[in-house]
Design brief:
The structure is a single chain. The protein has about 260 residues and is of the alpha+beta class. A hairpin with an 8-residue loop joins strand 4 and strand 5. The longest helix has 18 residues. The protein is elongated, with a radius of gyration of 25 Å.
């Protein structure tokens, strides 16, 4: 009887393992915590050793992610040009998607050590803040306008991890480390309801800023530009940024 029960146990365990083709998980990682993001995953087995994991993440309103790092690199540069770097404390909301193609060389898809290339994008919007715009006729007059900002980030990398699926379906997925690179585009839009703002002057100031700080901007591998109309101005900053993953823990259930 004992041998029969033991045999049935192993058959049952194998059957459960064979039938597990999906997993849903909740991700906790240092990067997500720092940026006040929540991450939810769905993973699907595509073959004996391959799966696709998709993650949706979003953040409640919080300060600009890594704003301390941003202040360290560009804070003094902004302050020297009369731009209050405190705008980096402005709260933002964001959402994004991440895709991982996992290759499991050992026990098969969803189980054990894996190698994963990953791709992702993140979109965010900053709360509007006030800004004093120069009058089109009298530079001594300023108009209180509004400035809004949004960013779009896309990156890719490759990582190493382990995934454990227990007999009851409980799943623990650990992406130990991932190294990658991406590009961020920040668009700052300024408007003023008075209709008496000299946007050309602001545009010229941006161009002068770009020329005066060409070496510093180049050292950051960034690009700065601006365009304007009679009603608004857009300042666009593009710069590379690491897409690093470290100790991404995901807990969930496989079925």
């Amino acid at each position: 009887m004992k041998k029969l029960l033991l045999g049935l146990f192993f058959v049952s365990a194998f059957t459960v393992n064979a039938q597990q083709k999906n997993a849903v998980k909740f991700t906790i990682s240092p990067g997500l915590v720092l940026s006040n993001n929540l991450g939810f995953n769905y993973e699907r087995k595509l073959g004996d050793r391959i799966s696709l994991n998709t993650r949706f993440n979003f953040s409640a309103k919080n300060k600009v992610p890594f704003n301390g790092l941003a202040k360290l690199f560009v804070g003094d540069l902004l302050e020297d040009e009369g731009v209050n770097s405190d705008f980096l404390n402005t709260k933002i909301s964001s959402y994004g998607f991440n895709f991982q193609f996992k290759y499991f060389p050992g026990a098969g898809a969803l189980h054990g050590f894996y190698l994963t290339p990953y791709f992702g994008f993140q979109n965010g919007k900053m709360d509007d803040f006030t800004f004093d715009f120069p009058d089109s006729n009298d530079p001594s007059i300023e108009h209180e306008g509004r400035v809004g900002a949004k960013f779009n980030y896309f990156g890719a990398g490759i990582g190493l991890g382990n995934q454990f699926v227990f007999g009851n379906g409980f799943t623990m997925d650990i992406l130990w480390v991932g190294l990658g690179w991406g590009m961020n585009k920040l668009t700052i839009n300024g408007t003023d309801p008075s209709g008496d703002v000299n946007y050309e002057e602001i545009h010229n100031d941006v161009q002068q800023f770009r020329q005066d700080n060409a070496v510093a901007i180049e050292d950051l591998y960034a690009k700065v530009n601006s365009s304007y109309t009679s009603n608004s101005i857009d300042i666009i900053v593009k710069h590379p940024f690491p897409y690093v993953k470290l100790l991404n823990f995901s807990l969930g259930f496989a079925f």
